[in-house]
UniProtKB/TrEMBL annotation:
Signal peptide: none
Official protein name in the record: Mediator of RNA polymerase II transcription subunit 32
Biological processes per GO annotation: cold acclimation; leaf senescence; regulation of DNA-templated transcription; root development
Organism of this sequence: Fagus sylvatica (Beechnut)
Cellular component aspect of the GO annotation: mediator complex
Length: 135
């Protein structure tokens, strides 16, 4: 819908310019201003669509990761897991995900504490897992 309106406004600009003999007139100025407004609306709609697509991609990726890590994927497809690794709990996966996110944020902000945080993560860990008990 937005592209159709944008094209219509572009055609209006060209028509106004043709009717004025390629001279700058009030009609061409108005047509050009209308086109600029529609162009901005189109850009905003494109940006929103891109953000939506990115959020859906991230959600799908997260859901697939959780399914793979918890073994839910194997149960859904009726096949054995292909990684050969035992499934982990969704809670444990969320804890690890938070720790990774904190590290990424620290690295993006140029913090020198990322290496320290890797050894002493701020996210709580589940003591039921032996790899956490060693930390």
């Amino acid at each position: 819908m937005h592209i159709r309106i944008l094209l219509l406004q572009a055609a209006n600009v060209l028509e106004a310019k043709e009717n004025s003999g390629a001279q700058k007139t009030t009609a061409t100025d108005v047509a050009l201003e209308n086109f600029k407004q529609k162009w901005e609306l189109f850009r905003v709609a494109c940006d929103q669509a891109e953000e939506f697509v990115e959020s859906v991609k991230q959600r799908i990726g997260s859901e697939c990761l959780v399914d793979e890590a918890t073994g839910s994927l194997a149960g859904k497809s009726g096949q054995a897991g292909t990684t050969g690794l035992p499934p982990i709990s969704a809670v444990r996966l969320e804890q690890m995900s938070k720790a990774v996110r904190w590290l990424v944020i620290e690295l993006q902000h140029g913090s020198g504490t990322a290496a320290v945080s890797a050894h002493h993560p701020s996210a709580p860990f589940d003591a039921r897992f032996t790899e956490d008990a060693a930390q």
